[in-house]
Amino acid sequence: MLNTIPELLRKKSVQAIFQTPTMQNVWPTWLNEIHHHLGANFAENDIINLGDNLGNIFRSTAIAGRDQGALSSGGTAWESLVCWYINLCCVGSRIVAIKTMSMVPKPIQDATTINYANFACNTESDITVIIFPNANDYNQDVNNLNIIDDHGNTIPTTVTGRINPHALNFLTERDFLNLEIGVIQCKTNWNDNAQIPMLWDMIYSAGGFSGRNITIGRNNFNIQHVRNFTYSFVTVPSNARANYNQNSVAVKRVTNLSGGNFWGQHTNVGVARSVKEIFNNNYSSGSRTNLRNDLRQALPDFKKNGDLEYFKLL
Q: 140 phi and psi, to 5 degrees?
């Protein structure tokens, strides 16, 4: 079923990624590298296993040097690649990854907001993952839905063929207690950034620090009220893999993140897991069967003029 609320939101998320100049510049090179790893007549396991090589795909367009401009564009590209990959592996499920914060439903934006006295800021949520409840409104074709607001008015599920943000906000507010939320911080360089996710995860796990006037959430939405919340770190890493072992400071800083730490390489036990493990670790409840089965059924739709052509996989 590829015309559900999660699938329409997924399409909007992925299309937004491809509209950025960074993604347009790197995609031709990345696609060649992706095809190299997928091989001909690829199956669902080949797609999931791209996670073991996501770092190599990213590095195929690496810019020599570490000036700030290169780091910034590289970071944006890595976030886009991770968001694309997660959505690719989750087609047919109720799991959606969103890179653009303005696209995230308002109740979830509010729930993840950190307040320092009167100053409100969002975490460094490079990617927000939503796991919608296993309910009819998220499993049925949107054309068969009849969403009624609190005043008895019908809310259109789509506007000009795209998901209606008003309907999405209403549903996420109504079903807030049954949502699962994942925040992913993506960094190309592990050494420079490991302390950042560690500190954000501490704040979220502690529920804020009332004695220091640090609180979580606004408009009466708080991550403590959802079914589950995870905070994860996903790195390339751009610096040499040989630098890392289970006793490295950078590794220890992210060892106990609520959502785990991952990288775009094969799993190295005690250091980091392949990003392909993030689904089983954090989002396993988002599929009615399992991701492999959902993905297997969707494979024909990646072709030209198929429902999933927007992934630009072929």
A: -95, 160
Please give the backbone phi and psi of residue 124, each rounded to the nearest 5 degrees, phi first: -75, 70
Q: Nearest-CA neighbor of 14 among 84, 118, 110?
A: 84
Which phi and psi angles does 179 have, rounded to 5°?
-80, 155
- Given a contact cutoff of 8 angstroms between Cβ atoms, the answer to whether 91 and 140 are in contact is no
Q: How far apart are the first and last CA of the chain?
A: 21
**pTM of the complete model:** 0.93
Span 261-284, mean pLDDT?
A: 96
Q: How far apart are CA 184 and CA 259, in angstroms?
A: 8
Compute the C-alpha angle 79/81/85, nearest 5°.
120
How wide is the angle at C-alpha 53 spanned by C-alphas 50 and 55, nearest 5°? 125
Q: Which amino acid is residue 143, in one-letter code? A: N
Rounded Cα distance between 20 and 285, Å, is 31
- The closest of 231, 128, 134 to 178, measured between CA atoms, is 134
